């Protein structure tokens, strides 16, 4: 048995090991980069922007003399920001949240949806498909670059048109934050 030949073989393997590890690592990195490119890229509504929208709507309603609740949700309908005026009715907590959820989920203003189901009885099932849906005016989708990224809902003003005006003021307060880069 030639021990020197065995030692030379081990030395050769040991010498090539770093190269093999390097090639393997590079392959893993390339594969991971390729997989990352396949992931969807969606804009999100940051909590700070949601809070600014809620404050804008809240301030408009306060200025107009309405005691309301304002809710802002993300694209999935999860609450990001909420404000309630002292003296706002207890029902306004759920109505504002449900309006925001409905606008985000169905991607349309809730007043528009309420009108649609009033005119098209076949569409009335929409109101019953989820316990968080509320077909009353006062909810608006939050959009950027054609993507709905959330919803804002206001409840407590003396009419859906006033709730919606406050919600619109909330959207106007974040308009600069919703501008999309020219690359989109």
Can you walk me through this structure?
By secondary structure, the protein is an alpha+beta fold. It is 51% helix and 15% strand. It folds into 2 domains: 1-39; 47-178, 2-Layer Sandwich (Beta-Lactamase). The protein has helices at 3-38, 47-63, 91-106, 110-119, 160-173; strands spanning 69-74, 79-84, 139-144, 147-155. It has a 4-stranded antiparallel sheet. A hairpin with a 2-residue loop joins β3 (139-144) and β4 (147-155). α2 crosses α5. The longest helix has 36 residues, at 3-38. The chain is elongated. It starts with a helix and ends in an 11-residue tail after the last helix. The mean pLDDT is 88.
Shape: elongated
Catalogue the unreliable spans: none
The overall pLDDT, averaged over residues, is 88
Strand order of the largest sheet: 2-1-4-3
Global Rg: 27 Å
What is the CATH topology assignment of the largest domain?
Beta-Lactamase
**CATH class placement of the largest domain:** Alpha Beta
Task: Specify the CATH homologous superfamily of the largest domain.
Answer: Haem-degrading domain
Number of domains: 2
What is the element string, with H for helices and E for strands?
HHEEHHEEH
Supply the helix-strand structural class.
alpha+beta
Q: How much of the polypeptide forms β-strand, as a percent range?
A: 5-15%
Architecture of the largest domain, according to CATH? 2-Layer Sandwich
**Count of alpha/pi helices:** 5
The biggest beta sheet is recorded as: 4 strands, antiparallel
């Amino acid at each position: 048995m030639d021990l020197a030949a065995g030692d030379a073989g081990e030395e050769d393997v040991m010498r090539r090991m770093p190269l093999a590890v390097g090639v393997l690592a590079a392959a893993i990195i390339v594969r991971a980069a390729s997989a990352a490119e396949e992931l969807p890229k969606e804009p999100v509504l940051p909590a700070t922007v949601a809070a600014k929208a809620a404050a804008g709507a809240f301030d408009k309603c306060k200025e107009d003399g309405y005691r309301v609740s304002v809710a802002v949700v993300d694209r999935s309908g999860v609450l990001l920001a909420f404000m309630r005026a002292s003296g706002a009715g207890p029902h306004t907590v759920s109505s504002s949240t449900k309006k925001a959820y409905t606008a985000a989920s169905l991607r349309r203003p809730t007043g528009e949806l309420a009108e649609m189901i009033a005119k098209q009885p076949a569409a009335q099932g929409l109101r019953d498909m989820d316990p968080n849906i509320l077909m009353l005016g006062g909810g608006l989708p939050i959009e950027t670059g054609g993507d709905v990224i959330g919803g804002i809902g206001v409840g407590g003003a003396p009419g859906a048109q006033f709730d919606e005006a406050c919600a619109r003021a909330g959207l106007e307060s974040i308009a600069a934050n919703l501008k999309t880069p020219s690359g989109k």
